[in-house]
Amino acid sequence: MPLWTIHHSPDAFTSQHKQAFARDITGYYTRIGLPAFYVVVVFDEHAPDSMLIGGEPASGALRVVIEHIAIHLGGSEEMKGAARSLDAVIAKHAAPRGLYYEFHVDETPRELWMVDGLEPPPFGSRAEAVWAARNSPAPW
Amino acid sequence: MPLWTIHHSPDAFTSQHKQAFARDITGYYTRIGLPAFYVVVVFDEHAPDSMLIGGEPASGALRVVIEHIAIHLGGSEEMKGAARSLDAVIAKHAAPRGLYYEFHVDETPRELWMVDGLEPPPFGSRAEAVWAARNSPAPW
Amino acid sequence: MPLWTIHHSPDAFTSQHKQAFARDITGYYTRIGLPAFYVVVVFDEHAPDSMLIGGEPASGALRVVIEHIAIHLGGSEEMKGAARSLDAVIAKHAAPRGLYYEFHVDETPRELWMVDGLEPPPFGSRAEAVWAARNSPAPW
Asked: Residue A94 pLDDT > 80, yes or no?
């Protein structure tokens, strides 16, 4: 469900860094009960001539796009709180490397989402807990 | 209009598979009258260290993002029906190769969409049928 | 804030073309007062077998996805006007190279957006003008 696309400059991350980052992102969602396999993280590396910030070739920079499906946020304050939590996940991996970063979240309709041929169970349901425990989808 | 981005593991598809998949996607939309050229499919291959599911390097997996513009769906049941139809298109190409897949659809404002310098004609209009028949945009 | 993803055929652009295009995109937003560094442009090159239009391998083509966060547009006519302005920015770089193009814009919630650890200042605010003048984020 959450899909993170991390556009980044070359050499921002090693393979080990990528996995540590992806695991922290995954942990953010499993802590609220979502199955780990819902969390997909794509790292997209771009040469400086192919990622430009303010018209200038980017280096040492991340641009993160987060797509949320399963859970939508209520009001403006709840959104800002979520943004600060997500920011902390990114900052943990960007700050030690001196990387500049920007992120935004889009929210899309839950009904237009399926996993491996199945409609995902409702958020907080017993079936979802089963999916989380087995870390894979199953008929419910 | 529909833009499909198919994030996939290396070697999930040959060039021939990609085209067969893209043609089935295109057929899904032309059957309801949309011009074939509206349908853009991008295949984005990611090494296992750059596509992670649940914090683990992915192999044999697809993550499909579908952006719909021209036609928005009505209620919850209509959306679920559409999701099942889209699922069938993906499953046809994922299942025989044993690929795990997840997809979601986003819907965006029709007014913020143009094709080769032209505002696209209304859905179901005579002008749209002309675009479909010539398979290219033209002043209307 | 605006994120432009430009899917393109190989050799559609040189590095110089990419920068000139990205600068014109940036200028579109700085003219209304936004900081230049808000504007991120990613060029994503795809071989013909990995970008298909109407089921056929694409060449000489662009598919542009624009994500707007900071400013949302009011009604249908305002949207269409914005689309025509954005179209002019793309056409300037696509037409001389004979490139076919399509674009659409998505709008996402402003509250779910942060820049380098900071909540961006309101549109048109004095703090935003400071960010624009220094071309970098700063506590406000």
From this structure: yes
